[in-house]
Request: fold
Amino acid sequence: MNTNKGYVAFVGAGPGDIGLITTKGIECLKKADIVLYDRLANPRLLRFTSKDCVFIYCGKLPNNHIMRQEKINETLVAEALKGKYVVRLKGGDPSVFGRVGEEAEAIAAYDIPFDIVPGVTSSIAASAYAGIPVTHRDYSTSFTIRTGHACKKNEAAIHHKPKQEAIGDTLAYYMGVKGLPGICESLIAQGKASDTKAAVIEWATLGKQRVVEGTLETIVEKVKEAKLGNPALTIIGDVVQLRSSIAWFEKKSFYQKKLLIAKSSSEESVLERYFSKNGAEAYAFPTIKSNPHSYTAEELQLIVNAERLIFASVEGVELVFTQLFKANYDVRDLPRQIEHLSDKTRKELEKRGIHSLKASYDKRSAILIGNEQAIEKQAFSDNLLALPSHTIEIDERFQEVNERLLTENQWETVIFPNKRSIDLFLQEWRKFSTENPMELSFAAIGQSVQEYAVKQGFNHIDEQVQQVLDNQKWKCES
Ligand code: SAH
Reply:
């Protein structure tokens, strides 16, 4: 028997907004060799993992197949027994309708060590983001979590008669869209007033959140009208009326805006964060990974002997300094003239005690260091040698996620941070979607990028988004 057992962490991903995972959850993701994730765990969280981590999707696929529970348990056990650090990433809290009991039992049976890391459960998060406090001194002194859908064995329990005092307070129904008519009817039959307020919250805490409000009598019709679907949470009780004064998320300036950010450099994740924080559904696509280059002894020699050394990226600075140091060089061996392209790179050099100059054309020879794409077509010298520090590749592990997110959402606008991102975006979009990408509105950073987008066929500028990019507000607030 293998004595070198691995570890399993059952991690609550929170309800959707990636800011709602715990720091402990993030630590687990960083350590993971393999992550098994569900449909309701925000896939953006997978970016916290290392680049060698393996992802396994356990949710529903387009052909409606789902990874069976036994298969999930088997995989968890098998991977842990190989000595792997396995993360089981679950939407919300793993213990709330999350089957953590079954999975943890399977792990415990093999004496594999494990953690259960709680998460913010969707009923509490959905209520918060819809402006509904689950308890309130004047309206509700209890909060009950229920399922609107149970396996055969428990069916009777869903509609069991709760005690009179219990139905006076706040009720949250998970998995309850289909069963909503039955839920409302049975609550009324049990004595709950038919004008008791109810709210249904779809995709809570994300930019695509939608809220429908009514009473036990009207909510079914309203949900049907708005075509709300899964995942959605139903909150029933007098506390729902507080929404009218404290709903806050819906007031965000980009609430419900569906934005793609064409990925190509590190900046787009700053944009993703900025727009998500302001209420948008924002997703940087495609996900790329950068592979560091290992400089040869000759290349390092060229670097130290350069007349001018130009850094095009922060990663380039990090890589060159580490590799020079390993090869027994140090800061005293660097060329006298060091230059930067961006302010971020200047700051990185400053951290290392170096005052650099802003790169500009100069006829003296130079070596340029940065990501493969970033250093293409730069003209800083007639005698310029580019030594790429990193190559950029599409991260194929995100195939499933990209396919699902691209087809599941009605994207409105795409942001292009630079020209290269436009090419990459179009190339990848066509892999996953049959829709015409030119139907999307767009916004771009800088005039030349905008012109390039128009040349490629994009023709409608999203003024609201463009304004944010133009006044650089997103940079200050990130
Ligand atoms: N463990 C999860 C619940 C899993 S059961 C948790 O603690 O939240 C799946 C149900 O959770 C869905 O049918 C839906 O009712 C609810 N749910 C999960 N995420 C949601 C979200 N972002 N918005 C609305 N409902 C959500």
